[in-house]
Amino acid sequence: MGRMHSFGKGMSKSALPFKRTPPSWCKATTREVVEQIVKFAKKGATPSRIGITLRDSHGIPQVKNLTGRKILRILKHQGIAPTLPEDLYFLIKKAVSVKNHLDRQKRDYDAKYHLYTIEARVHRLSRYYRRTKQLPANWRYDSKTAKALVA
């Protein structure tokens, strides 16, 4: 399937290992991994940043294979999950930064067009999250109040 506002098709991606058991060289226990995830989340790290840190610094290849749950599920179980989904948060953050640019450079028509496409993606993604009940049914994106969401 193609991208929404670009020409790429996006066919290549990384593949997960076929075996769903943790590798023999990984000696971390489930409790240790959950404690590390909670510690990183309390410092303010996003779920994807937690996974990257665990992989690169602590030698934990796949959290789901080790614990049986994904990082976001662990955070929800602990009650410290982010209120906005991560991809929606970063799209809103990008829209706010383009909006700040447009406040300084009013005649940048290219940026104005890209702000429109970014906000279209925000609306589409928020519609999906409202449908799957990950956001409240009355949640709306408003460009005037978006700065408060990412602050």
Structure commentary:
The protein is mainly α. 56% of the residues lie in helices and 0% in strands. It contains 7 helices and no strands. The protein has helices at 30-42, 47-58, 63-67, 71-78, 86-104, 109-131, 146-150. Helix 1 crosses helix 2 and helix 5 (86-104) packs antiparallel against helix 6. It is elongated, with a radius of gyration of 19 Å.
Quaternary structure classification: single chain
Radius of gyration: 19 Å
Helix content: 55-70%
The H-and-E topology, N to C, reads as HHHHHHH
TL;DR of this structure?
It is built from seven helices and no strands. It has helices spanning 30-42, 47-58, 63-67, 71-78, 86-104, 109-131, 146-150.
Secondary-structure map:
Blueprint: H1 30-42, H2 47-58, H3 63-67, H4 71-78, H5 86-104, H6 109-131, H7 146-150
Helix pairs in contact: 1-2, 1-4, 5-6
Core attributes:
elongated; 151 residues; mainly alpha; single chain
